[in-house]
Amino acid sequence: MKYLAQKAKEASKSLRIARTEEKNTALLLFAEELENSTKEILSVNQQEVEKAAKTGLSLGFCDRLSLKGRLEGIVEDLRKVAKLPDPVGEILEEIHLPSGLKLQKKRVPIGVLGVIYESRPNVTVDVASLALKTGNAAILRGGKETLATNRLLITLLKKALERSPLPVEAIQFIDRPDRSLVLELLKLDREIDMIIPRGGASLHRFCVENSTIPVITGGVGICHLFVDESADLEKSLPVIVNAKTDRPSVCNALDTLLLHKEIAENFLPRVISTLTPLGVSFRLDTRSWDLLSPQEGEIFKKAAPSDWATEWLSLTLGIRIVDSLEEAITHIETHSSGHSESILTNNREHANLFVERVDAAAVYINASTRFTDGGAFGMGAEIAVSTQKLHVRGPMGLKELTTYKWIGEGDYLIR
Amino acid sequence: MKYLAQKAKEASKSLRIARTEEKNTALLLFAEELENSTKEILSVNQQEVEKAAKTGLSLGFCDRLSLKGRLEGIVEDLRKVAKLPDPVGEILEEIHLPSGLKLQKKRVPIGVLGVIYESRPNVTVDVASLALKTGNAAILRGGKETLATNRLLITLLKKALERSPLPVEAIQFIDRPDRSLVLELLKLDREIDMIIPRGGASLHRFCVENSTIPVITGGVGICHLFVDESADLEKSLPVIVNAKTDRPSVCNALDTLLLHKEIAENFLPRVISTLTPLGVSFRLDTRSWDLLSPQEGEIFKKAAPSDWATEWLSLTLGIRIVDSLEEAITHIETHSSGHSESILTNNREHANLFVERVDAAAVYINASTRFTDGGAFGMGAEIAVSTQKLHVRGPMGLKELTTYKWIGEGDYLIR
Fold this sequence. Notes:
Two copies of one chain form a homodimer.
Chain A: H1 2-16, H2 20-36, H3 38-54, H4 59-65, H5 71-83, E1 91-96, E2 102-109, E3 112-117, H6 122-133, E4 137-141, H7 147-163, E5 171-173, H8 179-185, E6 194-198, H9 201-210, E7 223-227, H10 233-245, E8 254-260, H11 261-275, E9 281-284, H12 286-292, E10 300-302, E11 316-322, H13 325-335, E12 340-344, H14 348-357, E13 362-367, E14 384-386, E15 394-396, E16 402-413
Parallel strand pairs in A: 3-4, 3-6, 4-5, 7-8, 7-12, 8-11, 9-10, 9-11, 12-13
Antiparallel strand pairs in A: 1-2, 2-16, 14-15
Helix pairs in contact in A: 2-5, 2-7, 3-4, 3-7, 5-6, 10-11
């Protein structure tokens, strides 16, 4: 592991000074290699998906392993990344100090990234391309179920790098599914500058607890939407539908709906009758339960205290009636994972108070929580969504894979 | 510890929305309290300094404990911080997306800072003031030798906070010198957002190895200055003198001087004859040793391999002669701690190459390494110098004690 990390660190030295065209050339060559080997990739991948299905892994999980129908999109994304502006080299600040020192704050690559992800093999291509574009070396560790697919993707990447001006060692891949290697990786703080976990809460927790390298935690979104008494209820319904049902398995999907008591009586039945046909089931607090008096079963359950701290990742929705904006904020403060929170309101004061008080990566006024995403934020690419507060908060695009360096110049200047 | 951290987190909620005037009022009240209790502070501090001296601690160390002659400056700095612009609330970006989403990236406080420092009690006041100014709560842990002084400073701060609009619990102080409490602190990642160690390399290492909270490492500077063959030697001498002798005990002081072979024969004797009367002693590589043929003793020693990886923090200077800019860069790559590196040259290409290739928080062309400092960079205040690459690199002022929040607004907008 250490040897592998040292090779990545060595490569990062030439990547740091690589020109934009050189980096783009490498990305386009990689796209070409993937295109030329489409058949082989899909066949290797297909075998792994079948094997996973046989071992009894869920359909949803197996689907995430598959590249079928997705490879074209992956190649297209690669070409899109090549076209994105290169953030490296940007002068962020320029200061002429009274001392005579001319100071520049310049955007530079971070160095070596460690990325630990789970099933999806498209992450291998995504991460490699974003790392190369930003002049970073990377060490990748994918899921064991797609080891063969990832190996092949990496072989094609190495082929592309060999034909390119970039160092072949720029992207390292851990090709043994041994978990102890991850533990080793997380301690290499002299070689690796940043760890990005991509996966569930337990993977993030594992990294935080074991890493001596800074970890970008995130991905877990317990997201709330509060419908204030002043909200336009007609317009609120589609926002709730979008936040909950557009893509329920992702981190920016809605988990808990908070309703102001003044509108609950009329509005809650409409919410239920709109969402039920879409397959949504509900966890109701006592007040909404009493208001609806539903039949307990698959669709309606009484909410347990732990339900408010659950990221559903499915078509389940918690619903709670609150007395006031204050109570809504307190509920969010208590249960939010700091990802995405939204208020629907026509009251400007309430909107401002919500935005000021709620501590999350993204806070919305009259918009769906689903917007928290590199693409929707116009970043052109996304490697992760951070719910911690240092370096990057929210969607992490190309800029967020860079750091800066101070450059001071004088005429043989002393302090 | 957890209870204390929870109180800080609770306080951070009202600090987050405190207005600039409220924060400044608290700082000015604190300054007032310190002034009114000058006698008492100095007396308590004097007793601790004497006690430390009796236990045989070094003069330099005891001097760092003392507030004598420094309290006025500390109070003045407090008033200066009150006058600095408040970074919180700044709109960093504003984007109108094609989707109709109006997106703002707004600067906000981080939340709760954990600051672990050693002897100097002035850090207690510094850190408290910078945290309050930026709307952050903080948990402080000072050195055991100044426990009574720190306790008194914190009592005065609490008095000031009681009279101010800010919450009294905003600044928490760990008033037991038990190291296991630090270990506990470092694991409270649900309450604390950032750890700033201020002290030697071992404290930084301890935090990195034990913390589940992001740590801003830094403070350790193995700094190099390379005199290129094209350098103006007349002008180079004062820069070397400044970098080495101006304040040898700080992290931006020069540790290793690299000389291009073409200028070494003439220039090295001048360096030696200039620095020796200033009390500097030398660790010479073989080539400089052979060139000078000095008498081995207190002033001249042959450099051991480990000397190149030593932060001297004293009037010792390593000297090495190199064949080329390339060899200088390689030496720096191998031994730099990523703090401050400088080239003296009249060759623009060499200057650019040095700046591009050397990976450090601050890289200088024709300037002393001593400039790496919040004050010298015009930040108005400094809480630490970071040598890691995430969130902040180099001097850490007020802005670096903030994060951002995305605020999205739409007209009941869906994705």
